[in-house]
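batch job 7 of whatever, protein = ATP-binding protein
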Amino acid sequence: MERNSGWSSTTTTRVGAADSDIADSMVGVRPRCVGDARTGRPSDDGVHRMPTAVMRSAAAVRADRRILLLAAGTVMTAFAIGAAAQTAWVYGNQGGVVPVTDRILANLSAVAAMLLILALTGVSLPQRGALTVVAGVLGAGVTASGVRFASQLALDVYVDPSQSVIVAELSSGAAVAWVAATMGLAAMLSQRRLRLQVVNAAQDRLRIELALQALQHEEVRVRREVAEGLHGSMQQRLVLVVARLDRLLDSVGDVVGPDDVELLRQVRSEIETVREADVRATSRMLYPDQLEVGMVPAIRSLLGRIPAAVNTRLGVTDEVRTLDDPSESRLNRSERLLAVRVVEEAISNALRHGRAQVVDVRVSLVDDALELRVSDDGRGFGDEAGPASGTARLADRLRLAGGDLRVTSVPGDGTQVVARLPVDSLRTATL
């Protein structure tokens, strides 16, 4: 069955939520923070180089240049228009005729010259040293002042200026350009500091993510080793103990009394039960059967152990089958284990608390995440009942992995558990 089913509900308990990456949209750079997709071993390649890479990225350089030119141009334009208006007002009160338009055009030519020099000298580039930046600002001011005065002469603002007028116009023009360029640099550096803070925060989050992935990888490794130890050495030892008890029973049948023989047979039976049931069950709890083959085989093995009186259905989409292909699985062990644990917990609650007779499991792929839906026809629960402690712990695990878990139930009409588990290999491929 490859269809997806929908269920109506009246009571929904949300027990987890995905966090968002605060740095992706601003800086446009996210280093690869996962390792091999089969082993789940995390790698910190690129994390330590993240601030430098982001600060020197093309997007960051364009943003710095834009804020520098915008701030400096705004300040310089305000000075240009304000100075022309002030001159017109002062000389107008004295009965003189002031060419306001020509003065504004001359001042705006200085704005254009300053912005052109700032852009050409590359003072906004992060690799520029302090001396280069200072030289660029000084050059922009001098050029803007010279262009302004030349424009004033060309537009007949001054016909035959005196030496004092020349010095005043050149010095005032350079000073205004330097102030505007300095304010533009201040705005650019402020934005750069803010960007660096965001990048550092994202880097800290990536380090936490890597640490969590490392812990999950280590947990899976320990679970597997302990499960293999129980299934291998522990069972072998118990088999040897049972064999020795069999030989002992054969040899002491005529020596000890019937009660002692019966006691030995009971001990043998209890040891056999421990070996066949308890050790196997503990081994499956630590590391589910068929998990090494894939997530879907492990879920199928889990459903196969449910009593025949309970009707079980499993639906898996083609996308999930491709993702979980045993020959080249893109799900790491941690993701497979967590997905199987979600299904196992939902089925366990359905059978123990809901008295379910039908359990339906659906596994699909939504965007870059697995979606696991487990529904049953059990008794359900109302608002007063929350998720079980095991479900709450799984919700925490899913939240740490960037996913979430929702439990929806209608009293007397069953329960539905929906889990979303992001797949690291798919998230990395979309970046």
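notes: The two ends are 33 Å apart (CA to CA).
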